[in-house]
Amino acid sequence: MTPWEFKAREFVNCNCDFGCPCQFNALPTKGSCEAIAGMEFDEGHYGDVDLSGLRLVTIFYWPGPVHGGNGKCQVVIDERANEAQRAALLKIVAGEDTDPFATMFAVFASTVSELFDPIYAPIDFAVDVDGRTGHLLIPGLAEMKGEPIRNPVTGDVHRARIDLPSGFEYTLAEIGSGTSKCSGNIPLELTNSHGHFASLHLNNHGIVRN
Question: How far apart are CA 81 and CA 92, in angstroms?
Fold first, then answer.
């Protein structure tokens, strides 16, 4: 098993109501599951391949809950990545060199029946985890915007967090609102639905818990 580890910041938008029932082992709000996730690696490696500064986007669709399978996945990798970096990221996303079901990559890969050829493209991405804001732009393919949830009466910013001590993606996530639009193999159109913002620290064995 090639050792890998990274620290990254992510912004995820799915079609569920705020909070996302999946985080509580419940069924998705609307029956199916649609999501787009963007992340930027602050530091990381796969073996001796440096991943620092790269960006990665995954777009998913499942006709039912994730554990029901038959999912579709489109991976988009930062065009700045060289061949070794591209190969490393694809292996991590595919759940390779990872303990079984130890990361969200390994879990999701086990439920995907249609994996489209990866796309290498410029990825404009920024996320402020504590501020619950973020944006993503892949020209001609996807755009995503994240912002805090607001009180429907006063308009004041509302803050909520999800704490998963034994999670496989994050330990603590800030919850916000996301709006996304994707074309291509997995078209999505999400408006003011669940968004989460998290700092990740993962390796072959799952979350690195300090």
Answer: 14
**pLDDT tens column, 103-121:** 999 999 999 999 999 999 9
Q: Domain ranges in the chain?
A: 4-207
Contact status, residue 123 vs residue 59, Cβ threshold 8 Å: no
Phi-psi region of 69 (alpha: psi -120 to 50; beta: other; left: phi over 0): left
Return all residues near 113 (Cβ < 8 A) that are at least 6 apart: 69, 70, 71, 72
What does pTM read for this prediction?
Answer: 0.96
Measure the CA–CA gap between 44 and 65, rounded to whole angstroms.
31
Please state which architecture CATH assigns to domain 4-207. Beta Barrel (2.40)
Q: What average pLDDT score do residues 123-128 get?
A: 98
Per DSSP, the three-state class of 69 is coil
Residue 210 pLDDT grade (very low, low, confident, very high; cuts 50, 70, 90): confident
In the block, tokens 């130890």 appear at 102
Compute how many other C-beta atoms are within 10 angstroms of the C-beta atom of residue 182. 23
Token pair of 179 as six digits = 């709006």
Pairing of strands 124-128, 157-158: unpaired
